Amino acid sequence: MDIKKFIEDFADQFDETELDEFKPETNYREDLDEWSSLIGLAILNMIDKKYGVKLTATDIKDTITIEDVFNLVVSKK
Amino acid sequence: MGKKAYIKAIEYYLPENILTNEQITEKFPEWSAEKVTNKVGISERHLAGIDETAVDMAHQAAEKLFSMNTGLREKVDFLLLCSQSVDYKLPSSSCILQNSLGLKTSCGAFDINLGCSGYEYGLAVAKGLIISNIATNVLVITSETYTKYIHPDDKGNQTIFGDAATASIISTDGFAEIGEFVLGTDGSGAETLIVKTGGARYPDKTGAYTINENGDTQWDDNLYMDGGAIFNFTADVVPLMVEQILKKENMELDNIDLWVFHQANKYMINYLRKLIRIDKDKFYVYMENVGNTVSSTIPIALCEAQKEGLLRGNVLLAGFGVGLSWGATVLRCK
User: Fold this and answer.
1) Do A41 and B227 touch (CB under 8 A)?
2) What is the pTM for the complete model shown?
């Protein structure tokens, strides 16, 4: 799994935030103004559809950065 | 040649009271009104009055339809009321409306208990009644007061839902021929969108709530929606339903001139639009000043699209939600 591609898929769920604002170390809930729980649901659905990993809101509750989410997906694959 | 069924006229009614994003964010200061508008695509929603029921609103919507179309009232020979907020356990509220609207007593009437897929089911039943020569002018009413089911502390559902009623006449002539249908049900998701108490299973209110594993509060006596489950359900079901209805109609994506989805919230239906690869310019969105009005979102959108002159060619309707239940059809507009 490639983190660069994962970040692009993650960023795709945002409508206004530019791609260069998304880094592995981005604290996605705090650093991205556009973040909302609806985007969270879209990201979980995207991870299921594109990476075949079913996660719930509880599963990602303790993740902080985009890389944390990436690592969680890798560990469940 | 067999008989065909058409939508002949649509009107809708919005209750007087308005709840704005500013009023919501006053109550929940951690939210910004602008952010709510941007994400869910809703700035304000209408709320039924304290003494105003869905049946009162249904009556208003139908009266508006009759005042705009003189002579129709006398022709109505079937009434379908789609609502999950009816006046009594019995009788059927459609019977009450037959009388209050002054429809002839040779008019058949029954209620349909469905939510966000309700308009498609109403059209499907109405088409069946017309094709089989049981009725010639079917009044299909949708009316919902979900806002009365929402707990005052439930900010998520308060931002999304609004109250409204619509009235349509389905007849042997009209502006939009009703095509094929794809309908579906998955009751395994019944508890993901539910008002648990007040029915026969749990007749008494409990006043209780639980905090589920996602940290969401779930009140027994109020509307509960598991956002994640509903999001995943629509992302699974809607693209498949679109594929099935296009196949049934021998059409491709490009043959659809206007897409009218259940107006759940702007962000979610745009997610669906991108999944299905629908052209943004052909994807109709109308919710900013009404919100998610459950079974009324699609007829309200049709009404507004018609005013804008956008109801031409093939119009695909897709409803999905509580049940879980879904339905799609294609209208051929003149």
Assistant:
1) yes
2) 0.95
Residue B82 bears catalytic tag: no
Residue B169 has pLDDT above 60, yes or no: yes
Active site residue B262: yes
Q: How far apart are CA A68 and CA B210, in angstroms?
A: 29
Best A36, A50, A54, A62 member to test B by mutation, with max B CBs in 10 Å, is A36
- B110 in reach of chain A (CB within 8 A): no
Q: Which of B267, B272, B285 to mutate to test the interface with A (most CBs of A within 10 A)?
A: B267
Q: Exactly one of B116, B137, B265, B333 is catalytic; which is it?
A: B116
Residue spans of chain A under pLDDT 70: none
CATH number of the domain to which A59 belongs: 1.10.1200.10
DSSP secondary structure of B48-115: --TT--HHHHHHHHHHHHHHHSTT-GGG--EEEEE-SS-S-SSS-HHHHHHHHTT--TT-EEEEE--S
Counting the structural domains of chain A, the total is: 1
HEC letters along A6-54 = HHHHHHCCCCCCCHHHCCCCCEHHHHCCCCCHHHHHHHHHHHHHHHCCC
Strand B325-333 vs strand B17-20: parallel, antiparallel, or unpaired?
A: unpaired
Domains defined for chain B, CATH in brackets: 6-174 (3.40.47.10), 180-333 (3.40.47.10)
Mean of the per-residue pLDDT values of chain B = 96
Domain interval for residue A36 = 3-76
Does A13 sit within 8 Å of B271, measured CB to CB?
yes
